[in-house]
Amino acid sequence: MFRSPDRFWILLLVLFVNQGNAGPAKQAGYYGHGKTASAEEIAGWDIDIRPDGMGLPPGNGSVEEGEYLYEDKCAECHGSFGEGVDQYPSLAGGNGTLTDVRPHRTVGSYWPHTSTLWDYIHRAMPYTQPESLADDEVYAIVAYVLYLNDLVDDDFVLSPENFTSIELPNKPNFVSDGRPDVKNIRCMEDCRDPASIEILSMVERTAPKAGQDSSASSGTTDAADAIAVYQQACAICHEKGIGGAPIPGEKNLWTKRIANGMETMVKHAIEGFQGAQGMMLPKGGFSHLSDDEVTSVVHYMVEKSQ
Amino acid sequence: MDIFISYIQGNIPTMDDGDTKAGKPLSAPDRRKFLMRSLGLVGGAAAIKPSVLSAASENLPPGVPAWSRSLGPGVVSHPYGKPSKYEEHVQRRTVDWLTADRIASISFTPLADLKGIITPNGLVFERYHAGVPGIDPSQHRLMIHGLVERPIILTMDDLMRFPSTSVIRFLECPANGGMEWRGAQMDGVQFTHGMLACCEWTGVMLSTLLAEVGVKKDASWILAEGADGAHMSRSIPMHKALDDAMIVYAQNGEALRPEQGYPVRLINPGWEGNTCIKWLRRLEIGDKPWYHREETSKYSDLMPDGTSREFTYAQECNSVITSPSPEKPLRGKGKYWVDGLAWSGKGKIKHVDVSFDGGVKWREARLTSIVLPKALTRFGIEFDWSGSPALIQSRAVDETGYVQPTYGQLRGVRGTNSIYHKNAIHTWKVSADGKVANVQIS
């Protein structure tokens, strides 16, 4: 087979080099790095749900329970009727608008699968407290959002048994990627009539306002850090007064609070507080913030509001 | 001096509006000194021409600059170096009206001020769905499970023991330019095209990790999931995972930045940036896609007939001229080097053509960088500007033969509501005064 020993060695070398690359598959466990994942470890992280119901935990939740939970945990951003507050997504309505000039994409008008709703609420909602809902609470909120979209009746109870029977109306309208779907040609000369060129829309340059990178704000490092933390964690509610959060700079909202003393305000900000005007989650729900960071932001907000 | 003159003219965006008039590049004493001299020279005239100011500076010949007559800071004054203070305007920016808040939002790469094809780590555009998690790498784990023979949990140290590979690939949000579907809307190349970056990524081929866990016969999809509060997740087909997907822990020679997924992320070269899950904590191998929120409610493309395309992964061939641009106006007639970027998620850039008359005549530009598949490619062409208004466009062609389309062609098929994957030929209008505006033409 091999006319000279050289050829044999060259072939062997080629095979060896190939083995060194990622190319040919190696046996499972070839490297042996890492540890085997236990069933318990996997269960703690395996949170995904599929349209066929794979991944759904046992449990159930009713529209009625969902209404209470939704008002408490969701309506602040999504509106009591799922209409959406400010630019936070609306969850209901919009049926029949997908071919309109301004389509209104909601769970009822656009989403293809109920499982997406369960999966997303469980993995990412409420916005400031992801993975804080119990499974039954997720079932109940999903049931209520389906109810807001007129997809179930008010006595409906969602459970793994009936889950896959709830089909969302827009599912048949999802199709596969049809690209490439346009074909331009590489013309070089006389490609169009110059007289036909018309400017349809135009935007001229205006210098962007400040507030790009929070790190660039002026002042001491401490103040800059406080502003950065405020932007990242607190502005979400305090900038617009969501949930009764006092807006920095609106002095009348702060007079009483400031009168209670800095110590009380810092305590409420760190530990959370339920007042007549609204609710402050512990650290606004951003539990990774240190007490010092929260304290510095309270000082910053008070300074702006005196 | 370009930058200085720009400040005088107020063309360059600043951090603080108050700085625009201040002539930022000079220190306060320098400024006082040369303003006094200038006033002496021009007799306190209100309109001081930049050229007169420049001539008055003792930092210019025949004067000897202040920095040449003194000592500067020594080594490790900045243990981790930063760009010159005169480059402070080169930074990521956001557009607040795009999103409800800054935690689930996007910022843009300042393309006009970048050279070559590599995006510096601190300038790579950001896209978060729940802000940046503050991950301690010693407590971060990557779990791989599902239809596998050997489900595993890897530490970062484990991951770095696998064979390592580095590639230069672009990263682009599929919503890049999405604000322009109905008409010109953004006033700079940073905002029309800045959801775009290109880095050298270093890590482990996903195929290596899949071989290590032993993928079962029916496996055809992978769910990738992040450790951020959104637990950002996307379904990735097995063919991509086995082709060129990578699990990366470094960009441009250093550890991933927190904004880019520290300590580890997925990179799917040439595909929607959104599939390149950051802060990667879990890969589940399955036999069907998951249809999660970021691949149904979002990142699906609504067509005029009411259907929606799902799993529109590839970023098709695209290009833009970065100079001239609204951020880089022309300053008087004469010869200019027109500079831009082209890229394709389907492979290498083959040609880039440039038109100065709104697409009547095209000239082939020179590819001035290394040409790599699924990477930004730099092009340039000489332009002898007569001082007349011009409509400047670029049109890229990739190695599949695909020619970047016009707005008319794209809208003809997709209408104006598909948000994602807008890769139309872009037009800058140069006015007689050299200013550059974002326009769309018939």
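qc> DSSP finds eleven helices and seven strands in chain A.
qc> done
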